[in-house]
Amino acid sequence: MCLAVPAKIIERTEFMATVDIGGVTRQVSMMLLPEAAVGDYVLIHAGFAIQAIDEEEAQQTLALFKELEQYAADN
Amino acid sequence: MCLAVPAKIIERTEFMATVDIGGVTRQVSMMLLPEAAVGDYVLIHAGFAIQAIDEEEAQQTLALFKELEQYAADN
Amino acid sequence: MRLTTEETARAARFFAEGIHRLASRPVRLMEVCGTHTVSIFRAGIRQLLPPTVELVSGPGCPVCVTPNEYLDTAIAYSRCSDIIITTFGDMLKVPGSDSSLMAEKAKGADIRIVYSPLESLTIARENPNKKIVFLAVGFETTAPTAAATVLQAEQQGITNFFVLSAHKLVPPALKAILAEPKTKVDGFLLPGHTVTISGLEPYYFVTQEHAIPAVVTGFEALDILQGVYLLLEQISTGKAELVNQYRRVVKPEGNPAARRILDKVYQPDNAVWRGFGVIAGSGLALTAVYQRFDAKAALPLGKVESREPAGCRCGEVLRGLIMPADCPHFGLSCTPEQPVGACMVSVEGACAAWYKYGQGRWSYA
Amino acid sequence: MRLTTEETARAARFFAEGIHRLASRPVRLMEVCGTHTVSIFRAGIRQLLPPTVELVSGPGCPVCVTPNEYLDTAIAYSRCSDIIITTFGDMLKVPGSDSSLMAEKAKGADIRIVYSPLESLTIARENPNKKIVFLAVGFETTAPTAAATVLQAEQQGITNFFVLSAHKLVPPALKAILAEPKTKVDGFLLPGHTVTISGLEPYYFVTQEHAIPAVVTGFEALDILQGVYLLLEQISTGKAELVNQYRRVVKPEGNPAARRILDKVYQPDNAVWRGFGVIAGSGLALTAVYQRFDAKAALPLGKVESREPAGCRCGEVLRGLIMPADCPHFGLSCTPEQPVGACMVSVEGACAAWYKYGQGRWSYA
Amino acid sequence: MPPGINMGKDGGVMHNREERILLGHGSGGRLSHDLIKNIMLPAFANSALAELHDGARLAIGGTQLAFTTDSYVVKPRFFPGGDIGKLAVCGTVNDLAMCGARPLYLSAGFILEEGLPVAELKHIVASMRETALAAGVDIVTGDTKVVEKGAVDGIYINTAGIGIMLPRVDITAKRVKPGQDIIVSGPLGDHAVAVMSERHGLTLPERVISDCAPLNKLIEAMLAEVPQIAMLRDPTRGGLATTLNEIAADAGVGMILEESLMPVRPEVLAVCEILGFDPLYLANEGKVIAIVEKEYSEKVLTIMKQHEFSAAARIIGTVTNQAAGQVALRTTVGGLRLLDMLSGEQLPRIC
Amino acid sequence: MPPGINMGKDGGVMHNREERILLGHGSGGRLSHDLIKNIMLPAFANSALAELHDGARLAIGGTQLAFTTDSYVVKPRFFPGGDIGKLAVCGTVNDLAMCGARPLYLSAGFILEEGLPVAELKHIVASMRETALAAGVDIVTGDTKVVEKGAVDGIYINTAGIGIMLPRVDITAKRVKPGQDIIVSGPLGDHAVAVMSERHGLTLPERVISDCAPLNKLIEAMLAEVPQIAMLRDPTRGGLATTLNEIAADAGVGMILEESLMPVRPEVLAVCEILGFDPLYLANEGKVIAIVEKEYSEKVLTIMKQHEFSAAARIIGTVTNQAAGQVALRTTVGGLRLLDMLSGEQLPRIC
Ligand code: SF4
Ligand code: SF4
Ligand SMILES: [Mg+2]
Ligand SMILES: [Mg+2]
Ligand SMILES: [Mg+2]
Ligand SMILES: [Mg+2]
Ligand SMILES: [Mg+2]
Ligand SMILES: [Mg+2]
Ligand SMILES: [Mg+2]
Ligand SMILES: [Mg+2]
Ligand SMILES: [Mg+2]
Ligand SMILES: [Mg+2]
């Protein structure tokens, strides 16, 4: 339905940003996400940043998966 | 200056003719030589018939060359 | 921080075991989104589930639900010598009534694949004597990118850029599915990326009006396994709540900035969905102010004759009423190389995914 | 009736022997026409002549006498994306001030080689959005074909066909040659094909005003040998008459129908000849009625900067003042692959013919 | 039959009623195979061609030879890690090596577009020279055609190659048997990503370049030590998945690969996620798949790891006796998925 | 140095300051030679290539082989007397035969334009099959690439070929010596005229068709009876005149041809007169030039006249010890003219 990939903003102008996606860089439009700043993680779709990624939530999800993994390993 | 080849008219409409040039046929414009008829020999240049070839003169030239040839052979 | 392969495998095992434990009675879960369909197959998630848990694909493949009339119109435009079509790669192979964009391209049509709609504007500037028609397909996630592109075109004074809109909205389609008496769905994996834009609000009707549990889900294998797990948890406890599994991306309010741009350029419209017919308010049309960017208005075509492929059961597949393998064409007279319906061509098409990833062909050891 | 090879050889021998007999003192004969130049080399006629008979090339190579300014204008048109150039193949390789049509074609210019100017009209019809500029070069023989094409364009209502005229007339150039004190010509082989159109009348000044014998000559090897023979006959008897060797084609009155068409479309104009400068009344310009087909008037260009190649002695070659091998560039810094002047590129160019057919390189056994 | 749909059997392709060649016919996937099977094989019927190897194995006057050809049409013609000239030598050298031959001689056929800068041609020819030197082959015969502006896109190169078969080896799909290990020489997809990234506005870090390399010396070292190697193939167009499908079909075996062992660089994965591609279908130009009895695989890996072009070689799966002709991938989360042949080309997509 | 003129030494071409490839670089004439001499030979330096024969002569494992390649870009791809497929087989078969080899195996590399009708491809492939059968060669390896619409003009084909050297023969320019006879197998220019006439609005009678034919059986018959033949060459691009110039230069000899003996059909002559071409520079695709000691020429002619593709074979001149590297034509009227190499391509002209 909608492929989208996480990316880190490494440079920004008013409308555009250079983002890093797993080591690959690309220019994307920031029109749909005007507030995001250099260093932020954002989701990219069709050449646009469409949402900021919540670092804390991301870490929590990972932590949860790790914990579960621990749980599975223990049982 | 001006390559031109002799051709025989094998078909004619008001403005165009099909000519035979040593076995090869082509469409040429008759605008510059409106009078020529099927069977006539004409000179072709840049896709136009530009002059009628005088068969009698042509034969005479050939005959002359043949004669000279004879003359040279005799001497 | 990243998970190692082992950590991933073990977390997956945890969810799989939990799902087995919870799946005491048969359930039918619908993954609304085609990207979920593909992820499920690519990760081989079906093999981790008990036979009681059936995953059924929904209408979330924009290419699949686009009716032939749209494709035929795009093809008709592509045949005009002064028109350049820009399109996402997704559309190329999809059959219209009697051609496809790929076949037209092979015959000489100027059709350019773009990754972003913005590339259309560069092409428009480089080809001032041509008209650029962008095939604007996609759901809530993609429509704002097309809207932003229209605003850019306006701002840059580009007058040879046009949009052929087939954008669609997911909630009205879900409503249509739920209104169908034959529908049997016990839970929804909701499409994480459309909700990223729309926010949760438009989806509460699923849990509140229909009392069916729903989980907004991400696209990694573990996201999906967790989504299934969370659905089964609700089902086994008789709950019907809207849960957000994909919190790292999906905010309850969605992306209001994107919605403002969308609302500036587009307004809701009725739209035809393949297999559904017209669904009220499920499409997007350019607003009066941006009418001049509307290909259909600005570049009128003669009547385009369209018909849907006879015998194709895409419609039922898209509505979750049958599985692809239930179609008598599947894998026989319908394959990705010789497709009958759009669902066999689109990478996200349910039939294509079932075929490519071996459902019905691969005997799992 | 055709001559056998043997008959031809023996007739040639007759003329050759006659020429040897008549050529008691050194004479310089000018073959005005480039087609004669090429025929002379291709038939190896020079080897049949005694050292006392020198053949010198004249200005009858339309490509050679066309100045760089014309080529540079054609090149400037070829660089316009909405212009298609149609041209005889002769023009392609000729260097302008710093490019050639061939180099422009390699860079992407749309340049089409035509055999007949009429093909330009087909191209014009097939490319209604383009402007077709036909490079109208050539002497009296060719100019009527371009004029007839203009009339056809008018009749067919074609509005995207234009002519860039560099047509030239032979008699004014001959007058210029004869007006030059350094000129030393004892007899003229006159160009059979231009006279085919113009008739004999415009050439009587050669014999009557300058008392130099002249023979209108055909293009077969035997025609040329006979032409030389007929000149020597006159020279040896002190005559200066206009003789028509090419009677099978050339009628005294020429082709009045062709001249009528020519006069309808073109009017005499001053023209620049490479090596000569302006020769009054030696060119052809479109008449007021057909002005709209004139590329220069209809498709104005910015100033075209032109210069002639430094060190090239084409001008003197074309006026019969030096032989190609007298030019210090000849065969060294100037070859057909790396030409300095137009005379080294045109198939009928004197320098090209001397080079290609081995003058100065081949040691005749 | 639904109206407007071509159900024709011979190479019929989607909505292609007038039956025209599509890009997919050159993708190395199923359409390519149909074209070869339905048009080329019946016409040119002979036993050497029917092997459908990377090259033909021939006996001439008592000498065992391998013979192969490829045309190179890569766009852009200069890309990170190489150019069309380097590719034209590597590709043919590698195909000969995959037959179990030592490449000796190449031909080079150039088709040039009028207007091509001579400097580019020189650069490309210099690359060919360098690569031929590195591979130890001679370019002994050639041809150059020039076509009108617009009749070709800059420069295409064909190379054909002759090699002499190495002693004691028999590289053929028929020797692929259940239980054998499947080895790949390094990360997948580098070439495809290096070639296509710029076209899609993606900038790769400098270290990510095409893997384009001549593998003949590596292969010869492997075969010198382990002549028992059953099968070799370079996973070019269509990628690993398509190549293994071909082998599985020819050998009548199944294969199971491990996703967790699949070597793919993070940048390549990123490009795939952005454009919606699958790295297992991306072209490689300096990789080899080796299939070998388990008892020899450690020895093969040891040799491979000593060689610069295969330092990251690893076992990625095994040949099975299940589901003959099919290739499966065991996923990281423990699932199993079919790895089909490529169908049409991969196109960048948003969903 | 005059402004705007490129006097550069390496492949420099007329007013081509940015040094771009011109059509003339592919004409087979002097620009082609400069390109090969200045760019290809120095890069690929090796003794087999340096021979500049129609193919390379190689020894592999004790077997004497010939190896050659050509790309075929003919337009139109269907022409009176053949098509691009027939040409692609004949051309390479003939080049092998000219080396004194028996052609055995061909490769075929197709570059197809997206949108090419499959029916055309089938027709072309069927021609290749038929011609290969007639020539007795197998097409044993191949490759198919498909490029985007507009990136190639329909279809181009490369073939490379391997042959085994015939015993007791040594076909090489170095054996061309003064006093030898120059034989040509039949009328000149048929192929070029068949291919180009339509493009110029000229209609040929049905009997005038391309001479495109595989000559290997003829050549083998000639060499079986007269292994002493010094030199063979097919006068393709650049025609008879250019081919003889190459041989004369390589052999360091002169040549004198007789215009009266030059076989040219009247229709071919007519086309030449119309367009301003010289038939001695037109391409042939089924003709051979044989150079042989006078004592053997009758025997060679006898064999040739028995063969369908050379029934009109005749002696057209002799090798001389004068003017080394140059070729002259004694004209019908008794003059002598230099036959230079082709310079650039021949373009239709009006003067
Ligand atoms: S298998 Fe083919 S025909 Fe059947 S529903 Fe799917 S797309 Fe339609
Ligand atoms: S040889 Fe060259 S430089 Fe000299 S006159 Fe002739 S064209 Fe000019
Ligand atoms: Mg291979
Ligand atoms: Mg190959
Ligand atoms: Mg290969
Ligand atoms: Mg060649
Ligand atoms: Mg091009
Ligand atoms: Mg040859
Ligand atoms: Mg060859
Ligand atoms: Mg050849
Ligand atoms: Mg190949
Ligand atoms: Mg094309």
CATH architecture group name of the largest domain in chain C: 3-Layer(aba) Sandwich
Radius of gyration of chain A: 15 Å
Q: What structural class results from the helix and strand content of chain A?
A: alpha+beta
The share of residues in helices of chain C is: 25-40%
Strand ordering within the main sheet of chain A: 3-2-1-4-5
Strand/helix succession of chain A: EEEEEH
Query: Can you identify the CATH superfamily of the largest domain in chain C?
Result: HypD, alpha/beta domain 2
**Spans of at least 5 consecutive residues with low confidence of chain C:** none
Number of helices, counting only DSSP H or I runs of 4 residues or more of chain C: 15
**In the CATH hierarchy, what is the architecture of chain A at level 2?**
Roll
Pair with the biggest interface: E-F, 79 and 79 residues
Strand order of the largest sheet of chain C: 2-1-7-8-9
The biggest sheet of chain A, with number of strands, parallel, antiparallel or mixed sense and barrel status, is: 5 strands, antiparallel
Total tally of structural domains of chain C: 3
The largest sheet of chain C, given as strand count, sense and whether it forms a barrel, is:
5 strands, parallel
* Overall pLDDT level of chain A: 91
Which descriptors apply to this entry?
heterohexamer; A: 75 residues; alpha+beta; SH3 type barrels; five-stranded antiparallel sheet; elongated; E: 351 residues; 60s Ribosomal Protein L30, Chain: A; Phosphoribosyl-aminoimidazole Synthetase, Chain A, domain 2; 2 domains; seven-stranded mixed sheet; five-stranded mixed sheet; 30% helix; disordered N terminus; binds iron/sulfur cluster; binds magnesium ion; Hydrogenase maturation protein, carbamoyl dehydratase HypE (chains E, F); HypE (chains E, F); PurM-like_C_dom (chains E, F)
Task: List the SSEs and their pairings.
The complex is a heterohexamer, with 2 copies of chain A (75 residues), 2 copies of chain C (365 residues) and 2 copies of chain E (351 residues).
Chain A: E1 5-12, E2 16-21, E3 24-29, E4 41-45, E5 48-52, H1 55-74
Chain C: H1 5-22, E1 27-33, H2 34-42, E2 53-60, H3 62-65, H4 68-78, E3 83-87, H5 101-107, E4 111-113, H6 119-126, E5 131-136, H7 143-155, E6 161-165, H8 170-179, E7 187-191, H9 192-198, H10 204-210, E8 214-217, H11 221-237, E9 242-244, H12 256-265, E10 266-273, E11 277-286, H13 295-298, H14 314-318, H15 350-356
Parallel strand pairs in C: 1-2, 1-7, 3-4, 3-5, 5-6, 7-8, 8-9
Antiparallel strand pairs in C: 10-11
Chain E: H1 30-44, H2 47-50, E1 56-60, E2 63-72, E3 78-79, E4 82-83, H3 84-98, E5 101-113, H4 118-135, E6 138-147, E7 155-165, E8 181-184, H5 190-196, E9 202-203, H6 216-225, E10 231-233, H7 239-251, E11 254-258, H8 266-275, E12 289-292, H9 294-305, E13 314-320, E14 327-330, E15 336-338
Parallel strand pairs in E: 5-6, 11-14
Antiparallel strand pairs in E: 1-2, 2-7, 3-4, 5-7, 8-12, 8-13, 10-12, 11-13, 14-15
The structure holds iron/sulfur cluster (2 copies) and magnesium ion (MG) (10 copies).
